[in-house]
Design goal:
Peroxisomal Thiolase, Chain A, domain 1; four-stranded mixed sheet; 11 helices; alpha/beta; about 325 residues
Length: about 325
């Protein structure tokens, strides 16, 4: 039976950097509030002519270049995003167009902040079934383009970016590979975090625009409570499926929504804080992109050694959640 191994990572962050102090100038907020309540200091914001597919293509190119792999070696492209370039075609297809990749399947996955966990799990299933050999999974998001910049309860939270991983089949059971994954969803709480309009429920009209229904909305406190609970339970379940204990972990890469959620997870798992990868201070919450960006950062910084056990865990709108344990 083939196993699925992550053989490369990549990332791309837009150039424009906006600090909390920049936000203070046009939103009723303070650097102190944002830092202490969320852990965010600054975020990147994509340019008007830089849709999600461009960020995704750059992240995938970075991953391919890091191991000298030709794009022609890919068998499948999965893009996790809830901020696609267009409702359809998918962002994965636009990415293909930018990179002149033709023929291989390309699809978007919509699972909000858990999207990269869903994408990795799908890629693992494809590879372990023997159906495909080499799969690119990209998490990309441009939440700042669906943000209401007059709503201080949400506009300070988000940033744009993309991260990529390339997975390949391996026969080496004892080597680096995905050891386990766990996914979940509970649609009863869909209204906690959503973009209400521009789908078939509320097609775009002057009214939806006037009411700001094309913006992201979130019930922050309620979402926070679910996040703290589910991040722990999803972590425990993936560890159990991998036959590992919390103390076996070398690195934890949590979704970066709020430093207080990350702290709560580290405390509840009793994992040393140095083993937790943090990017929220610099890139804020980029939804499905936070984990692949953080994974790439740890990888490029030489923080990950062969054989390390890594837990990735996410939670997001849907509600959705997911966790993946890999041995590097
Ligand atoms: O990525 C997907 C999953 N997302 C999450 O998991 C996010 C979960 N939620 C959160 O991270 C937090 O709930 C937030 C960061 C969104 C909000 O933090 P909070 O501690 O829950 O604040 P709050 O909503 O209870 O608001 C506290 C106060 C309020 O003022 P009053 O009513 O106490 O006077 C807000 O009006 O803070 C006020 N406030 C702000 N003040 C300055 C809200 N936003 C801001 C702001 N600047 N940007």
């Amino acid at each position: 039976m083939p196993y699925a191994k992550i053989i490369a990572t990549g990332a791309f962050l837009p150039e424009k950097l906006v600090t909390n102090f920049d936000l203070e100038k046009f939103v009723d907020t303070t650097d102190e509030w944002i830092r202490t309540r969320t852990g965010i200091r600054e975020r990147r914001i994509s340019a008007p002519d830089e849709p999600s597919s461009v960020l995704a293509a750059n992240a995938l190119t970075d991953a391919l270049d890091s191991i000298g792999m030709e794009k022609g070696e890919l068998d499948y492209i999965i893009v996790a995003t809830v901020t696609p370039d267009t409702m359809f075609p998918s962002t994965a297809c636009w990415l293909q167009k930018h990179l002149h990749i033709t023929h291989i399947p390309a699809v978007d996955v919509s699972a909000a902040c858990s999207g990269f966990m869903y994408g990795l799990s799908m890629a693992r299933a494809y590879i372990e079934s023997g159906m495909y050999k080499t799969i690119a999974v990209i998490g990309v998001e441009e939440l700042t383009k669906i943000t209401n910049w007059e709503d201080r309860s949400t506009c300070v939270l988000f940033g744009d970016g993309a991260g990529a991983a390339i997975l390949q089949a391996t026969e080496d059971k004892e080597g680096g590979r995905i050891l386990s994954n766990y996914l979940g969803a509970d649609g009863r709480y869909g209204n906690l975090l959503m973009k209400e309009a521009e789908g078939t429920l509320h097609p775009a009209t002057h009214e939806t625009l006037d009411k700001g229904m094309h913006y992201i909305t979130m019930e922050g406190q309620e979402t926070f409570k679910h996040a703290v609970r589910v991040m722990k339970s999803a972590s425990v379940e993936a560890l159990k499926r991998a036959g590992l204990k919390e103390e076996d972990l070398d690195l934890v890469i949590p979704h970066q929504a709020n430093i207080r959620i990350i702290d709560a997870l580290a405390n509840r798992l009793k994992v040393d804080y140095e083993k937790v990868q943090i990017t929220i201070d610099r890139y804020a919450n980029s939804s499905s992109a936070t984990i692949p960006i953080a994974l790439n950062e740890a990888n490029r910084d030489g923080k990950i050694k062969s054989g390390d056990k890594i837990l990735m865990v996410a939670f997001g709108g849907g509600l959705t959640w997911g966790s993946v344990v890999v041995r590097w």
